[in-house]
Write the C-alpha cells for this entry.
Amino acid sequence: MAMCRYARDLEVAHDADVFVAGGGPSGVAAAVTAAKCGAKVFLAESTGAFSGMATAAFVPAFAQFTDGVNFLADGFGRQVRERACAGTADLFDGWVPINPERLKSFYDEAVREAGVDFSFFTNVVDAVTEDGRIACAVLASKRGLFAVRARVFVDCTGDGDLLAFAGAPFEYGTDGDREVQPPTLCSIWSGIDFNQRTGADQAGLPQAIADGIFSVPDLHLPGFIGEMPGVPGVGIGNVGHVFGTDATDERSLTEAMLDARRRLAEYGRYYRECLKGYEKMALVCTAPRLGVRESRRFVCDYTLSESDFLSRATFPDEIGRYAYPIDMHASKADAEAFGKMWEGYNAKYRYGEGESYGIPYRSLTPKTLSNALVAGRCLGADRKMQASIRVMPGCFITGQAAGAAAALAAESGGDVRGFDVKTLQSRLKGLGAYLPRLALPIGEQ
Ligand SMILES: Cc1cc2nc3c(=O)[nH]c(=O)nc-3n(C[C@H](O)[C@H](O)[C@H](O)COP(=O)(O)OP(=O)(O)OC[C@H]3O[C@@H](n4cnc5c(N)ncnc54)[C@H](O)[C@@H]3O)c2cc1C
C-alpha cells in the first residue's frame, strides 16, 4: 500500500473543561448536563443540526421513556418529552412520533440556554494521547485542521470515532465476525391515510417477496409508527435494511446509500399496491445520512450483558435504569435469523410494567484512558444489551450521566475514576435522574 507522511503543528482553537464529540441524543444530553454542572463545554457536531439519528437519519419516533410506571429517562429526557414533543400522545408500547424540525428547534434552544459552546460542520478526525489520557482532539472543518484541549473528553459520536482514534479497545460484531445489525435509510412519505391503515405492514411481505416485488427477501419491516406530529398525511418510513454494511468504512456506507435509495421504489410499490391507507403514498425525500444501529462497542470497566437484562440487574454504581426490549435486527436476510429476532423481541426480552435494568457508571468508562467517557449507542455493552440501550431515551440517560461525571472529573484533575460515585449519583438525582436505589436506607443501596 502506498503511504504518505503527514505531520504538522495545529492551533488549539478551543480550551474547555469538557469536550463532547457528537451532538446526537447522548451528546446533547452530555453537553447540556456538564454545562449545568458548571463546566466550560465545547461540542463538535459533523452535521448542521443536533439530534443525530433523529434529524440527520430521520429516525421516526422515540422509544419508551418509561417502564409503564416510572419515568426512566428523567432529567434531560423529560425535557425532550415535554418540550420537543408537547401535545403528542404516546402510541402503543410508549412510542412517541417525531417531528424533526421541532426537535431541531428544541435542541438549538436547550444547548444555547445551557451556555454550551459548539460548532456544526466540524468533524473529529484524530486524537493526541499522552500517558493513557487524551491530550487533544483533532478536528476538521472548512477552515482546515485544528485542535481542542480539554480536561475530560466525552465520545458521543455513536461510532466512537474519538475513542477509536485515541486507541481505546472496542469490539465490532460477534466473536471476530463483523456482523452487526443492519442500517436503514429512513424516508419521508406523503399521502398516507393514517385512519385507514391496519398497522400490519409486515403481513403481506412473504407473498410480495414471492411475487418478485422485492430484490432482497427482507422479512422485517418496522414501517410507519405514526403520523408526523403537525403534518397531516405525512409519515417517516423505517423501511429496508442494508445487510452487510460497515458503518466505519466510507466505501461501504456509499454502497449502502445507493442500494437503499434504489430499493425504496420497491417499498413504495409494496405499500401502494398491497396495504390499505397507503394507496396514494409518495416519496418526499430520503435522509441525508444512513441510519446506523450498531458499529463499535467500547470495552469499558463493565460490559452490560444479556444476563443483566434478564436479571433486571441493579448495581452499586447505577447511573440510571432502562427497560426497552432487546431489539436485535437480524444481520442476515434469512428466515431463521428473522424467526429468532421476533421470538426475542416479542417474548423473551419483554419486561412487565415497572420492571427495568440498571446501568452502571463503569459501562461509560473506557479501558486504557483516564480522562475519557463514552455514552450512547457505543458504550460498554454486549451486542444483545446494545440492542436495548441504543434507543434514544437510553442515550439521554447515559449522556446525562456522562455529562455530570465529566464535569465532576474536570473539577478534580480530569480522572473519570477519581471521585466517589455517590457524589455523581447525588448530582444526578438533583438533576432529576431516576435512581430508586438512592431512596433506600444506607446499607441496602
Ligand atoms: C433506522 C433506525 C431506526 C431507529 N429507530 C428508533 C426509534 O424508533 N426510537 C428510538 O428511540 N431509537 C431508534 N433508533 C436508535 C437511535 O436513533 C440511535 O441509536 C441513537 O440516535 C444513538 O444516539 P447517539 O447519541 O449514540 O448517536 P447518534 O444519534 O448517531 O448521534 C451521533 C452524533 O455525532 C455526530 N458525529 C458522528 N461522528 C462524528 C465525528 N467524527 N465528529 C463530529 N461529530 C460526529 C453525528 O453527526 C451525530 O449527530 C433507531 C436507529 C436507526 C438507525
The chain is about 30% helix and 20% strand.
